[in-house]
Structure formats: structure tokens, C-alpha cells
């Protein structure tokens, strides 16, 4: 439903020429159509076209909730006018990730006197501005903010603290060691904490996790129902989160029903955290659980924790065996219909009866997976990535066949080696690509790759009888799919130099290629697709089928497909892109990628594209082609390229893009930098968290957090 204001009111529209006038539709239908239009356009443009639309555009159903979080065209003046026109009608305002708006923009939020929910994550807000704004929002109950260096809780006024005392939901992203506003929120029921504190300052000084004197006010957790903490890598983040947990270890809230801590690497259990977990085992019944792997591995904790109607479990990277999973979590296979989201990413033994004498590459025990599928029949989000889940030759017990029973799945993450047919893997002779070592070869001149058209037909004929084809056919409503090599690691890890060496793919994955990719085209409603480390990609012909059939595709991430010495799927990728009219985010990670004129010409067909990220060791780019692409694709607001070009070439291109397009695209964020440069981590730290977390850094996102954790 996209009509210009002129089409809506003029008599020259196609609808009227066919005897249908849009203005003759009922108010209910028109309101539904208008709900797809950004609020800024409704209030500032559409409502000025005619009297009827002037009334409808101010309907409460359209002004009650205002979402600006991905309205990349909004600027300070539009926000000012919007708040002046409908500020009193707004009850929920989401400005998350509006990093391009100056901090003074927040001053206009004070006109929204009736605000109940406010999300300012990723916005520039000082202590004084926050104090002034919150002093006027007496009805506020839900708040999301960032706490940056220089934040001073002592600058918060008594009126501001009074507002905070009524807030029941708080999301706080910390870029500096601080309690933030937590001690002021005495009625907290939901607390979400994101720790993004770096171990070193920009000047190179080591930071301490100790909080400043005067910030040792005790947080109030007595009414807490949900506690969530996500830690970025670094020891300072671990030190600070322990201070938040110290109060919980003294007295566990009796109404706590969701306790989630996501911590990468090793987060060692201490006496205080052990006391906290023991107290939880005695006093609460949980509905959602996620703990650092060191807190679960080797302990009998899960045997003692009690669950009510669990909807989310994450045992990511734990050594939990399938036997323990069934006995202690799924209660011996009892009914767990309430569970909708399960993350077993990196849980290498979760489908085996025990882990003591088992190798990670051994076959799974299909009876464990079958118990899981039967008990958790309403799963909507399942992550089994970052592990070797090899099916045995038993007929009817393949992982794909068992997963096909989960008819409600909306998102799924699998390792590449789990989708191969066992018989085909045994009988199939090695192909040309199998015989090539999966290492980096010498630089190859890349041109348009040709491929025999009958190869795609042969591939499809073979795959239609495979277990993966059947799985894709049974999950028709799947919206997110990730197929990731069990040994894949991105060349761009967080807070570290670029990885220069990659592990070879699993032997079982060697046969996974174009035909399996073609099977994905059955997913008519697919919105997000990630494919990483598929070694047997010969031409990429399956990508074309996906582009033609998956017309709702909005996010595409491809990494290390086929041979590592050259980009064998370039021609197919360009054909695919010509069909991706709804694509908004594209991430490509491939050595020796040539981002030239032909690639960008094909990419220009993606008229909805907003964000582009290319990561390529020894990759090349053509500056003129990039500039032409940016000029043609007016919606693009993020361009990140980490290639093999020189620092001078990268800087000149970045400056040219910013100079040419920043004025018309206020949210424009451009980072073009040599991938293997020693200063890469310093450049990355300045990337807005929204882009960094959602596209620039590679990670599995299925069941990463509980569904609807925040609005």
C-alpha cells in the first residue's frame, strides 16, 4: 500500500480510471493502509492533502505509538514539528538507534506529557537533559537509555527521581562503569542491562570495573520479575555486572520468573553468584533461563532449579549432554508445550546421551532429538548451530526428518553438516571443489562466471528427494533461516584484530552446495537468510531460485561460499540481486571479492536496500562504481567495506561519499577501511551500536534473546 498524496486525492489515479476511488474506501480500510506509512509522513505530509485524511491521520490508532527507530529520513526539525503537532497524543515513543539526531532533539520529547513508554537507546542524552525531560513525564513506566562516560546521577533533579521511582521497566546500555539510574528506580519489575564497556580508553588507559564513590546506592530489586544482562567481551563488563548481581545474591526477589545472563568466553562463578543460584533454586520458579557456561558446566544446578511454564531456554556453548537436557530440563520428556524459544548454539553434546567419552563429531542420538521435538512441539525459534550434529544411517531418524515435525517454527539455525544426506555423503565421489584445499590460494582475476544452465536442473532433481528438501517443504512459514558451518569464524571478531586463518569445514559438510541452497527457495515467507561456509558451492545457481521465489527477503548474509581462492558464485549472486526488491540489509564476507561496476549495477536493482557490509581479505573495490551505486540507491544509509585496499584509497572514498550524500541522508554512516589494518578495532568502536550489532559483526541471531524481550 504505497500511494503518493497526489494519487490519493487526485482524479487521475489508476484506481479512479478503473472506477475505484481510494477516498471511497471505508475509514477502517484507509486506517489500515495508513498504518504502513511512517508517522512523520502522516502528520507532516499526508494529512495536509484533504480534510478526510487530515482527520484520519490524527486517529488515535496511528498516533498512540510513534516509531522513529528506523525512520532514517527523520531529522531534528521533523521531530520538533511532530512533537508540536501530536505530542500530547503520543503514549509510546521509540527513538532507539537515532544516533544521527543531535542531543538537543531530546528536549522536544517534553511535549509528550502522556508518555508511558520511551526508548532512547542509541541516542545522545546527557545527565542534565535526561533530568529535565523526565521531570515532565509523570506517567512514564518504561524507559530505555544509554549511560555514557560523564554521566552523573547527582545531576538528576528530585522531580526526575520521582518519575524514575514509578518506572517499572528499564533498559540500560552501559558504556562506562556505573549504576546509571537503577538506584532511582524503586519499583522495577523488568531490568535489561547491556554492558558495552571497553577495557581500554581511547588514550590507551586500562579501565577499572569499580564504581565511582557516591554511586554505591543499593539497587531495588524486591519487585523484580525479569533480570537480563548481555555482556560484550572484556573483563570490565564482568566486574561491573557482578556489582549489579551482588544485591540479588543477598535477597532473591520472590516474583522473579526470568533470569538471563549472556556472557561470551569465560565468566567464572564466584561465591556470591553461587549463593544467588542456590537461593533461586529454593525460592523461585522460572519461565526463562540463560546462564554463563561456567555456571552450568559440571554442576547439578539444573537438577535443583524449578520451572513454571517456561517459554525460553538458552544453554549456548554449554557442555550440557542430551541426557541431562532431557532429564533435568525437559523432565524426562514430559509436556513442555509452553516452550517457544530454545538456544542450543555451541552445545556440542546436547543431542548425545552423555559427553564424557564422546567426540564432538560422533553421530547424534536421534531418540534425544525426538523427545525434544515431541515435548516442545510449539517451538517457534530453535538454534542448533556451532556444533557437529551428524545423523546416523538409520532410516527415518535424520535430524531434518525429526525437525520437520515442528510446524510452528518461525526461525531456525543449523550447522551445515547437519543437513547432508548420510547415504549421499557416503556414496558421492569427490567433486572438483572437494579436491581443492579449503585454504587461501593466490589472487585470481575475477570476471563474470559462467555456469551451465542444466546444472541447476540436475541439482534440483537430486535435492528434491533429499531430507533437507523435505524439511524446507514442511516449514513453509519459516521467516529466518541460518545455515552456518560448524567451524566457521568471521574475519571480524569483536574487539580483536581481524582473524587471518580459518578452520576447514567439517568433512560431512563437503557435499553441501548449490542443490541444498536451491531447496531454500521453497520458503515463500522467508525474510532473513544466512549462509556461511558451504564448501561445495560450484556456481551459486540456487541463489537465483531464492531471489525469484523468496520475494519477502529483507536480510541476506553470505560468507565463505565455495572455494576460498575465488568468488565462484558472483554471476549467480548478481542475477539473484535483480529480483530482491524488498532487500534492506546485505552482508557479504568472502576473500578476493571484487566490488566492481557489474556487481554494483546488479545491486542497484535492490531499490529498498538500506545497509551494505562487505568484508573481504584481499578484496578490491572500484571507487567510481561505489559512488554511482550510492547516487542511484537513495535509501542506502550505511556502507561498511573492509577490504584489501590501501588506507589512502579507503579514506578518499569514505570522504567522497560523506561529502556527496550526508546532507540529504542525515543517518548516513560510512566506514571504509583496510580489513587487516592494526587500527581496525579503533574504527569499529565508533560504529553506531545498531549497525554493529545487527549487521556488521557476524553472529547467529536465532533465539539470541527471548521473544518480545523489549518492544
TrEMBL record:
Per UniProt, residues of the F-box domain are 19-66
One cellular-component annotation, GO:
SCF ubiquitin ligase complex
What Gene3D superfamilies does UniProt report for this protein, alphabetically? 1.20.1280.50, Ribonuclease Inhibitor
Q: Which PROSITE patterns match?
A: FBOX (PS50181)
Question: Which one GO biological process term can you cite for this protein?
Answer: SCF-dependent proteasomal ubiquitin-dependent protein catabolic process
Q: Which InterPro entries match?
A: F-box-like_dom_sf (IPR036047), F-box_dom (IPR001810), FBXL18_F-box (IPR047948), FBXL18_LRR (IPR045627), LRR_dom_sf (IPR032675)
Q: Which Pfam families match?
A: F-box-like, LRR_FBXL18
This chain's protein is named FXL18 protein
